[in-house]
Amino acid sequence: MLFVLSYERSSLPCLGYEYMSGQIDRGSESRGDRIARRDFLVGSVVGAALAAGSGSLAEIARGEKNVTAPEDLRKKLLECLGGPWPQPCDLRPVVRETIPKDGYRIESVTYEVEPGDRVPAFLLIPDGVDANHPAPAVAVWHQHNGAWHLGKVESAGLAGSPMHHTGVALAKEGYVVLCPDALCFGERQSKDLRGGEFERFEFLRYVVAGKCMAWKNILDMRRAVDYLCSRPEVKADRIGCYGHSMGSTDTWLVGPWEPRLKCLVGNCCLPTYAAIHRTHILHCFPNFIPGWFQYGDTPDIAGLIAPRALHMNFGEKDDGSPIQEVREGVKTIARAYEQAGAADRFSYYIEEDAGHILSAEMWRRASDWFRKHLSS
What we know:
By secondary structure, the protein is of the alpha/beta class.
């Protein structure tokens, strides 16, 4: 999901937002809610960055970055995220229900990511895949789009846009697929705060603890890989991940920290801080890592995935990832892969005249990438 401040009237039909002169309009929300959302995001995101040591706004704009070695960048990134993750607890997995489908089955499961914090997920298992005939696996991180009520159900093909029923498409190609709920989505919503209010609450809760939502999402995604590795149907040395929009952000966030992910695909999301500041985008919370912009930008994070296989798709007219900065960003990632001796393990595709979508060509390239690096 993204919020855009603009001085010319325009629209984002795929997101259901309309914007003009800095006033955000979102269907059922009151005007007071809209102003509160805008003021909150401006104050919390920029304020959190300053509080975490990013320096003045002038310094942020200049982007004073002196750390270049990958391992040094990784150390600084971990500091900005909030420090090391805790030792993993027992997954304590539970299978709640099994739903037969055409060519695969869906298991409704839960597993523990931290003591007392269980993640609900759908596991899609193709027919013919079992402990004696294991298959490669792909974790699918769902999009944001303000659809807090959806989460995993869209990726698993049970609701939402057919465009994003990618878990089903992958299961039909023979992969075991895990579709978990991200924090604040699906079954991980609050009984006390609705939708975006709970997401704001959680973002601030982690910030005052010296962490951020990206830190929590990475922890949860690493535990998702733990769960996949625990399943006898999965070839643990052939695991990948895919995400659209916020799910793409999650892909390049978790990549540097999860070496068991051998192949990663991100679709339509590389919002650089340079672009966010230039075009005044109020993006979703996992994109914001307090203090990071003094060391690098988001492409520098994606570059830390090298030498493992990474493919990224973009829409030329996607307002959430302004193409000017995307074109520079992919150069940064490509340089990181070249320096790692793995130039052939990074690729990208920019679709002309496309917006924030998953097109047939984008999906073909994603599918081919998984086939090349997980199935062959």
